[in-house]
Amino acid sequence: MKFFIDTANLDQIREAQELGVLDGVTTNPSLMAKEGITGRNNILKHYVDICNIVDGDVSAEVIATDFKGIVREGEELADLHEQIVVKVPMIRDGVKALKYFSDKGIRTNCTLVFSAGQALLAAKAGATYVSPFLGRLDDISTDGLNLISEIRLIYDNYEFETQILAASIRHTMHVIDCAKLGADVMTGPLSSIEGLLKHPLTDIGLEKFLADYKKGN
Ligand code: E4P
Fold first, then answer.
1. Could you tell me if the CB of 192 is within 6 A of ligand 1?
2. What angle (nearest 5°) sits at the alpha carbon of residue 127, between those of residues 135 and 13?
3. Atom 4 (ligand 1): residue with closest C-alpha?
4. I need a labelling partner for 152 at 20 to 30 A (CA). Which of 39, 116, 119, 198 fits?
5. The predicted structure's pLDDT at residue 217
6. 7 touches ligand 1 (CB under 6 Å)
7. What residues are labeled active site?
8. Nearest atom of ligand 1 to the alpha carbon of 28
9. In terms of C-beta density within 10 A (0-12 exposed, 13-18 middle, 19 or more buried), how is residue 75 classed?
């Protein structure tokens, strides 16, 4: 399972990278705005800065919603750095653009996916990644994890190569549940990754080992 961090915050990206388990980064316009990154040039520069910190894929989202605009923006993003994956919304022109990018060998992440049907369409169009937003489904009392298992079943039935990128992860249990269900990738905040580290028995056990060592030395 690949671990992506879902942020545009360079310090947090560095921290996750230093932990040694980071496989990539996802961003979206809201995450960029949260860091105060505005204006096309600043946004493009920020993507390059992120690519220079991590070794893996960096999702960069298009703003356009029409086919020509998505293609123009996507090609500009893909040209920025070899690690860039073009993030395209699950809309009619987005699906057309996914197919276009796939035919050109440009890697894509189909975002804002909330149903198995949308995920099937993204795979048919040749998306590299599909991003089901499980946290946002949970927010409206719908089982986000169930969507991950539906997509896993469909993709396995037909051996689609599109990778399931479980997005909108909110906490550590989401990460573990997605791993059980066979999501290829998870993207979440730093806290969801660091939460995997923690167990009180680890802390208690280590404290005892160190105390016993001190007694004998
Ligand atoms: C990542 O690709 C998504 O944009 C992100 O996970 C959405 O997360 P949110 O629902 O917490 O905003």
1. no
2. 55
3. 28
4. 198
5. 87
6. no
7. 87
8. 4
9. middle
